[in-house]
Each structure stands twice: as C-alpha cells, then as structure tokens.
Amino acid sequence: MAKSWANSAAVTGSDLHLDLSGPGSKRAVLTAALREAIRAGRLQPGTRLPPYRSLAADLGLARNTVAAAYAELIAEGWLTARQGSGTRVAHRVEPRRASRPARRPQRPEPVHHLRQGQPDSSSFPRTAWSASARRALNAAPSEAFGPGDPHGRPELRRALADYLARARGVRAEPERIVICCGFAHALELLFGGVLRGPLAVESYGLPFHRELLAEAGVRTIPLGLDEHGARTDELDSRMRAALLTPAHQFPTGGPLHPERRAAAVDWARSSGGLVLEDDYDGEFRYDREPVGAVQGLDPERVIYLGSVSKSLSPAVRLGWMVLPEHLVDEVLAVKGLRERWASVLDQLALADFVESGHYDRHVRRMRQRYRHRRDQLVAALAEHAPHITATGIAAGLHAVLRLRPGTEQAIVAAAAERGVAVEGLDDFRHPDASKSAADGVVVGYATPPEHGYAAALDALITALR
After folding, report:
1. How far is residue 224's CA from residue 230's CA, in Å, rounded to a whole number?
2. What is the largest CA-CA distance in the chain?
3. Is residue 260 within a helix (H) or strand (E), and if so which, with residue range?
4. Which of 45, 43, 46 is nearest to 12 (CA)?
5. Would you give the distance in Å from CA 379 to the centre of its chain?
6. pLDDT in tens, 389-412
7. How many Å apart are CA 275 and CA 262, to the nearest integer?
C-alpha cells in the first residue's frame, strides 16, 4: 500500500520514485512523471513536494527544469503553491483507482492560442540567425570552447552595452552586465543569496514569478495600480526592493507615470533599497518612440532586467542583468565558478546578431507586424463588439479587453468553447491584493502565426458577442 505523506514533512526526490526514462525534454519527462504519480495515487492530495532546489539536487536536474515543471503543473491544477506551506498536490485531484480509472473532463483543445507572453514563433529569423551562428563559430577564440565564464561572453556583453544604451537609454559598461537564462533565472540568482525581502510587486503580474519568489522564501507585498501605473507612494521602509514593469505594466498595459518613475528612484535612494526594472517588451511601442529605461535615472539603485524571450524567441534562453557596481561580484558568486546555464555558442551567435544589425532589423519588422495585429484587433472590436474596448497603451504583445462587470469568467469559458485560449485578468492578481482593475481578458495577439491570426480574431469576436 502506498505511503501517504499528506500531513508530514515534504517528501524527498528518492521518495517520489519517478520514472524519468521517457522521451522528450527533461522538463517534459519530469512533468509527465509527476502527473502519473498523482494520477496513480502514489502522491496523495495534500502531499507536500520538495522545494524545487532540493528535488533538482536529488534528481540531478537543473533547478530551472524543476521550477518550470512545478509551474506547469500548478497552472494545470495538479499542484498548488502557497507562501509558507510550499508546493502540494491539489486536493481536487482524484487519484486513479485500479478498478475504476478516473475520467478526464472532455474539453475542446484550443485551436487558436491567444495567450499572452509569446511572440510569433513562425517569424523567427532563421536565415539571419544561422548566418550569425556560423560567423560567430568561425571567429570564436579557442578558449570559448572551454568552461564558460559566469559573467557571460565579453562579445555579448559589449554588444548589449552598446545596444541597450542606444535603444533603451540604459547606462551600462560591459563589466556591469551579467548574462543569465531569462527573467526567471535572474530572479533566482538575485534572491538566491544577494537580495532579501520583503519585495514590493505590482498587484497584477505573472503568478509564475510570485511562485518562484515564494519558493525562495521571499515575501511579496502588492502595490496598488491605477491609470498612472504602480502606486509608488505606497513604497515604505518595510520593503527592501521593488519589482516594476515601468515601460508597459504587465498585464494591465499602462506606462509608469514620469513622476512615479522618479519617486521610485527617490525611494530607493532614501531607503537604501533597489528597483528591479523588468523591461520585458520595452522595444515594442507603437504610437510613439519607446520611453527609455528607469535605470538611466540611477544605475546604482536600479537593476535592469531583460531578455530576448519577447523580442526574438523564448527558445533562445538568454537574458541579462545590468547591475549596480557593488552587486556584480555578489551575483557572480551565486552563479558559481563556471557557467552552467547559458550556452556559450548561443551567446556568441546573439552577439553577432546584435552587432551585425540583424537584431535591430528584426525588432523593427516585428514592431510593424504587432502594431498591425493590434490595429486589426481594435478595428474588429469597433465593428463587431463596440461595447468592448482594448485598454492600455499601443505597445507590447498583448492587450486587455475591458468587459462588463461580472462577465470575465463567462467570456473566458465562451472563448474556450470556440477553441480560443485567452486568460482572465483576475488570474494575474496578487492573492493579497484587492481587485483594482475592471473585468477583462488578456489577449496575446502576437502568438498566432501570420496565416492564422484572422481566423483567431473571428473566433474571439464570436465569443465576445
């Protein structure tokens, strides 16, 4: 009979008896193995799973791999994560019985993916990227093929320092840039021994980021939001840092007002705190030139965080931190003596891609494409569903459609019935924050391939009507 740990300490990796021999990526194999353990009843509802760092060490996997598997299962409803109680098997999950297999609910598979956060994968610049990869490989010095430097390749740091100064107004020397595998990895490094909580966050944001912070033992305190962005007047001495999306608040879509940008920096200076600037889609502004980064106001009090996940592809697992000078060595100490995450070859390829001008051309091309898609969405709403408007500035890869009060979940369900995957705005609200935004759905208009966008819009409009 399977042992139940539902009311005891977290199980260890060896207790889970996971079969990790299946096909696919390590993340996919681990996710499938955990699902099967829950279905089979070996992991009972309420069982507390090991922290992702511990499970990664037990199984010999990367921490990012385990964290991503946990996040996927939380999103699917197999697991729950609460600050202070860890990650547990959800109580609503029914284990499979040997004599009577559990029935899975029959739901239509999404035909049109309009979820936020993903660029059009069909637009990846394969030819230009291949050319950059070949040039970088041929030009790379022999030492590049040895153990990687956790600081990141100097070629990429130099290219980024020039690009960020030119495109985003970031004040950075290459020595202040540390390469990572994306925004989530940056959070893990910063809160893995460099920064301490409590951390102020915007009251609406990605649950996945809050879950990573909770796993690291970081308490997050929500800041209110209004038409001018985050309420920076709520920053106080309890908070050691503040995580903001100033260029384009995620997901509500407004920019941080200039006075509040300055107020956030003033708070950091007076309190000894830090501002973490998530510039996740800062290059994509359609109604005017992009507003420069807050980091330019005070490079010693603002940590600038960016990646190519939105501008190029999440498959290129590269991001960067532009750090205050006094934090560089501390972050490198957390990373360790060797680079374990970011591929050196990809770093070299990206450096050439930026320096050759291909990155600028790609961003300009995608800016035009996404602007056109947003315009199509707004025009379709005006013609066929005038009672619904797209809120926020003309920017980024998503829009929030404001709905009548009390209709959010019904619209999400109606869209799902028609094969359209969208998300309700309330799904992004901090659990400790009161509801401050109107009902709405978050529509990722960048995600569908070019040939499928018109059909996705038609299906969405049908659901909205």
Report:
1. 6
2. 65
3. helix 258-271
4. 43
5. 29
6. 999 999 999 999 999 999 999 999
7. 11
* Closest residue by Cα to residue 224 from 239, 207, 247, 204: 204
Give the tokens for residue 240: 């050691």
List beta partners, residue 180: 319
Q: What is the mean pLDDT of each run of 10 residues along the chain (465 residues)?
A: 42 71 82 87 86 86 88 85 80 53 59 92 96 97 94 98 96 96 96 92 95 93 95 94 97 96 97 96 92 95 97 96 97 93 96 98 96 97 94 95 94 94 96 89 94 94 92
Q: Give the residue ranges of DSSP H helices in 226-292.
A: 258-271
Tell me how far CA of residue 434 lies from CA of 63, 202, 268, 437, in angstroms.
32, 12, 25, 9
Beta-carbon contacts of residue 459 (< 8 Å; ≥ 6 apart): 111, 112, 415, 418, 419, 420
CA-wise closest residue to 39 among 2, 12, 69: 2
Q: What is the DSSP string of 69-114?
A: HHHHHHHHTSEEEETTTEEEE-TTPPPPPSSSPPPPP--PPPSEE-
Residue 130 tokens read as 């291949």
pTM for the whole structure:
0.77
